[in-house]
Design goal:
Structural class: alpha+beta
Strand content: 15-25%
Distance between the termini: 44 Å
Number of strands: 17
Radius of gyration: 25 Å
Helix content: 40-55%
Number of helices: 13
CATH topology of the largest domain: Aminoglycoside 3'-phosphotransferase, Chain: A, domain 2
Number of domains: 3
């Protein structure tokens, strides 16, 4: 059957994968594409990598195998249907090529004429009904909705007008990387370098103002912005060619990133109020002190909500001890008096790009202002994930980072400060990136697990601080940095 042949996986897909349903529409969402399945019809089915962006896989497969140029509009929301559990993800796509003809065994149906007789599987019928209802609702949102029909054409027209100012022209090829009503990420090919259009909505809407301000203040460390589209909270930026951190990197590559990170932060020390006005998160030591008691109260409640026995939840006594070490570390860091600077709270491998002449830092939605040493801790955590076989590299990378700061603060004071930074970095990540300031019973399950995991790491770090001596003058120790767990690696199990 044709339906069976349409359940496809792209070449080279690695496990695990997930099966999803597609609602493919055209002509202003007035028609839907169904596949023959004997005497009945079915929705197209597709297999995609579970932990990767769905949009590039879906649109690439549609073009390569069906010859259809499509855009992903959105993923149907589970709460929109009372008839279907939505255990199978459903993505709504729109064919943007008006001349495309479906292959044999596939047909366009007027949307209003599709009923249970066309889709005898009840789950698929209610899936289609719910997805169509959401699709039509998105068309009423107005400009800026990337789930509305035909959004691509005005976007391309705007991109062409921006490129014209650079003396470039827009080519036919493009690739979509993100989807959703108020989120968009598309890479366009041009006669010059490729360009990226990015738009953001809640809860990440602040990334627009932050990205524009960083491009204005620190053009040597972020992508060049060519144009802005305020109505869509979007901007167009140049593509940067380079390498993301990987197991193939040598020590010197990591050192270069650390040096560039320090140089960027040094430039930013005089701009803290400007950065805070641009909606960067306030992570200054005084702010962390103010949040400390509320944070640990939430953690204590989350420990009581843990439903598995291993690893054991932290006791009230253990949490009080951890909080006391956080308080001690914050106080000592205040005494050392390192100037506040720009901080990137999401320093994962995808957000670091080592180019031929510079290092570029991407995706600043989790930008903050605070102790600059927080970022070297996040870089050390990334090193441990990518190169667990190279624990001896940490001291060299810390040295490279610290030497860049030597014009502002002595190596002895930096080494002293770094001794107390890991436990503070863990708390700063939690309060800056995670939605923790609510009733613990309403915190999502995954977030609760991650917060408990971070708290356990902080407790281990508190024990280290209780036992370890200060590092000798000018020496940089990597002790303790294995406890900074930002990805919930410890499995809660029965």
């Amino acid at each position: 059957m044709l339906a069976d042949s349409m359940t496809a996986s792209p070449a080279g897909v690695s496990a695990p994968t997930v099966i999803c349903k597609l609602v493919v529409m055209r002509a202003g969402k007035t028609q839907v594409l169904l596949m023959e399945d004997g005497a009945a019809s079915r929705l197209p089915t597709f297999e995609i990598p579970k932990w990767e962006r769905p949009a590039p896989h879906l649109t690439r497969w549609m073009k390569q195998n069906w010859g259809a140029q499509t855009v992903c509009l959105f993923q149907a929301s589970p709460e929109e249907s009372v008839h279907c559990s939505f255990e199978t993800p459903c993505y709504v796509l729109e064919v943007v090529d008006s001349d495309w003809t479906p292959r044999a065994g596939m047909h366009w149906y007027p949307r209003v004429e599709v009923g249970p007789e066309n889709l005898p599987q009840a789950m698929e019928y209610w899936l289609l009904e719910s997805a169509v209802s959401q699709a039509l609702a998105h068309d009423t949102v107005g400009a800026g909705s990337f789930a509305s029909s035909g959004f691509l054409e005005p976007l391309r027209t705007w991109v062409e007008s921006v490129l014209k100012q650079q003396g470039w022209t827009l080519e036919r090829e493009w690739c979509q990387y993100n989807l959703g009503p108020f989120f968009c990420l598309i890479r366009f090919e041009t006669s010059g370098p490729d360009v990226w259009f990015k738009a953001v909505g809640k809860p990440n809407h602040r990334e627009y103002a932050i990205s524009l301000k960083l491009a204005e203040l620190y053009p040597g460390y972020v992508p060049k912005i060519l144009g802005r589209y305020p109505e869509w909270n979007g901007w167009l930026m140049c593509h940067e060619s380079g390498e993301h951190p990987s197991a193939d990197w040598d020590l010197r590559s990591w050192e270069v990133v650390a040096e560039s990170l320090a140089a960027l932060q040094l430039e930013s020390t005089g701009d803290c109020e400007t950065l805070l006005d641009s909606t960067c998160t306030d992570l200054r030591l005084g702010r962390l002190q103010a949040l400390r008691d509320d944070f640990f109260a939430v953690i204590a409640d989350l420990m009581t909500l843990q439903t598995v026995s291993l690893p054991p939840p932290l006791t009230d006594l253990e949490l009080d001890f951890t909080k006391s070490q956080v308080n001690r570390s914050l106080a000592l860091l205040e005494e050392i008096d390192i100037p506040d600077a720009l901080v990137h709270l999401d320093l994962n491998s995808g957000n670091i790009l080592l180019c031929s002449r510079r290092v570029v830092f991407l995706d600043w939605v989790q930008a903050g202002v605070g102790l600059p040493l927080l970022n070297i801790e996040y870089l050390m955590a990334l090193l441990k994930r990518i190169r667990p076989d190279k624990p001896d590299w940490a001291s060299s990378i810390l040295q490279a980072y610290s030497q860049a700061w030597e014009t502002r603060i002595s190596l002895h004071r930096l080494a002293h400060a770094l001794h107390f930074t890991p436990i503070v970095a863990a708390m700063a990540f939690a309060v800056g990136c995670l939605d923790w300031s609510k009733d613990p019973r309403n915190i999502p399950l995954h977030t609760g697990k991650l917060l408990r995991s971070i708290a356990r790491g902080m407790h281990q770090e508190a024990n280290r601080l209780e036992c370890d001596e200060f590092p000798p003058d000018g020496k940089f120790s990597s002790a303790g940095r294995g406890h900074l767990d930002l990805e919930s690696n410890s499995q809660e199990r029965r």
